[in-house]
Amino acid sequence: MAKLVINNESKKSKIAPEIYGHFSEHLGRCIYEGLYVGENSDIPNVNGMRTDVVEALKEMKIPVLRWPGGCFADEYHWMDGIGPKEKRKKMINTHWGGVVEDNSFGTHEYFELAKQLGCKTYVNANLGSGTVREMSEWVEYMTFNGVSPMADLRKENGHEEPWTVDYLGVGNENWGCGGNMRPTFYADEYRRYQTYVRNYNGAKPISKICCGPNVDDYNWTEKVLETCFDHTPAHFHGFMDGLSLHYYTLPETEGDWNFKGSATNFTEEVFYQTLKRSFYMDELIKRHGAIMDKYDPEKKIGLMVDEWGIWTDVEPGTNPGFLYQQNTMRDALVAGMNLNLFNKHSDRVKMACIAQLINVLQSVMLTDGEKMIKTPTYYVFKMFKDHQDATLLSSELLNNSTVGADKNELPKIFESVSENENGVITITLTNNSLEAAEDIEVVLTKDGAAYNVSAATVVTGKMADHNTFENPEVVKEAEFKDYSKTENGISVKIPACSVLMLQLKK
Ligand code: AHR
User: Fold this and answer.
1) Mutate which of 29, 72, 173, 308 to test ligand 1's pocket (most atoms within 8 Å of Cβ)?
2) Ligand 1 close to Cβ of residue 172 (< 6 A)
């Protein structure tokens, strides 16, 4: 039996809501079909945004949405996506399937979507193939409330008021698709571009995100920070608010990206291998975080894990450039495990955007024409939503066993615990075992006897269980009853292969 000791007198960092963030790129059917169907579609929509999708995302409490890419961002020229739709340029989406991008979803549509979702905005600007002027004018177009060429153009295009840009990415993956730059070169470019990202009078200051490393490229982190903070103190407000980190879990790849493994057809060994590979996130956060500590010991700059999730082979018969994949209980565990890790590292991790929102990679929803299904990953995000803005509590798992063999061995249970402003304690757990349930004694160090369970839900099933358009509810969030009150807390039996959420209230 494992024991979860929660020290509810030891309050740690605030869990930034943005840890539960999402990413939407002009890739495959993410923007077009997934989010945006156009005003004249038969699919119910408000100003072109799918109503079913918007409603489900609000229910899941989406806190922030990154757009327009990804690799697409460093080839995106924002002026192509404003003005009358029939006059917008048609271009080739060179990265993703070579399809025609008609730019019918642009800046105005993105802010309309964010408004409907009630979420923060994260615009990723083009450093790789754009100019300083282009980036600076986009910021002026979006945020300036006065008379200026770009503000006037926005008004001509029908939007009198400026919008709020909460986050601005200064390039994406500039070590790769964003220009194949070396770290010192990018860092100098970052210094220059970010200078002209203005905070206009009255506008909310924009949080600037610098392009961080790919996976374990510690040299990138070191050199970028060293160059950026040469002659610029790290505490210089507004110079850099975040450093991104991208890490995808490739279930079966052994160096060859053409064979990542199927999303639904995999062995138990591959299941544990996937979880173990995903758990690598912990080491990445610690090691990149340690480098950041040297330049920013007060942890003012967030590590923004703005692309993460499982990346498998595409569903058979679909366009390989569209990255459309199914989503199983394995995805639910990967989501639960990573979200627990992000909570635990919330002193440094200030944002994480799973890739991608809909119809691409590890999505929370899939669509087929007018049909929409929620994936196992969706339910995990929904179950974890009350961690947003809560305070992490110190917690420790005793007698935790391991699962998976040899190189795939990892802890059986992952957990994180937070307390919200009303004193409600949210506990989220994953049981990574495919065979064995686990009895867990949950103990609170203070007033344990006074707490009762106020909500408890679970997502569970077999490792490859997934929802389809024919059977949309094979995996879903269900009420959980297998707990009982004890002297200092509660005792629960978490089923094998499951993600569990418990709330305790006095
Ligand atoms: O999410 C798909 C792609 O993965 C993004 O465009 C890019 O940033 C990353 O390599």
Assistant:
1) 173
2) yes
Residue 235 has pLDDT above 70, yes or no: no
Measure the CA–CA gap between 207 and 64, rounded to whole angstroms: 13
Spatial CA neighbour of 116 closest among 159, 57, 166, 60:
57
71 Cβ inside 6 Å of ligand 1: yes
Task: Check residue 392 and report its DSSP letter.
Answer: E
Q: What residue spans of 264-374 are helical by DSSP H?
A: 268-295, 329-344
Question: How far apart are the C-alpha atoms of 418 and 13, rounded to whole Å?
Answer: 10
Q: What is the pLDDT of residues 258-298, one digit of tens each?
A: 889 999 999 999 999 999 999 999 999 999 999 999 999 99
φ, ψ of residue 194 in degrees (nearest 5): -65, -25
- The confidence band for 234, taking pLDDT boundaries of 50, 70 and 90, is low
Residue 483 CA to ligand 1 center (angstroms) comes to 42
Average pLDDT over residues 189-197: 96
* Domain 18-389 grouped into CATH 2.30.30.100: no
Q: Which atom of ligand 1 is nearest to the CA of 356?
A: 1
- Spacing, Cα 70 to ligand 1 middle (Å): 5
Q: Is the CB of 74 under 6 A from ligand 1?
A: no
Using the mean position of ligand 1's atoms as its centre, give its distance from the Cα of residue 13 in Å. Answer: 30
Structure-token pair, residue 257: 């990206």
- Contact predicate 366/359, CB 8 Å: yes
125 sits in which H/E element: strand 120-125
Whether the CB of 73 sits within 6 Å of ligand 1 = no
Active site residue 39: no
Give the pair of three-digit tokens for residue 485.
Answer: 């009150």
- How many CB atoms are closer than 10 A to CB 84? 8
pLDDT for 216 beyond 70:
yes
Q: Where are the domains of the chain?
A: 2-8+392-505, 18-389
From 101, 140, 252, 307, active-site residue? 307
375 alpha carbon – ligand 1 mean position (Å) = 21
Q: How far apart, in whole angstroms, are the C-alpha atoms of residue 492 and residue 18?
A: 30
- Domain spanning 2-8+392-505: CATH 2.60.120.20: no
Please tell me if the domain spanning 2-8+392-505 has the same topology as the one spanning 18-389. no
Q: What are the phi and psi torsion angles at 73 (to 5°)?
A: -60, -35
Could you give the CA distance from residue 404 to residue 269 in angstroms, rounded to a whole number? 7
Collect all residues with Cβ–Cβ distance below 8 Å to 299 and sequence separation of at least 6. Answer: 292, 293, 347, 348
Distance 71 CA to ligand 1 centre (A): 6
Quick check: is 173 catalytic?
A: yes
Q: At residue 487, what is the residue type?
A: E
Identify the band that residue 44 occupies on the pLDDT scale cut at 50, 70 and 90: very high
Tokens of 10: 């030891």
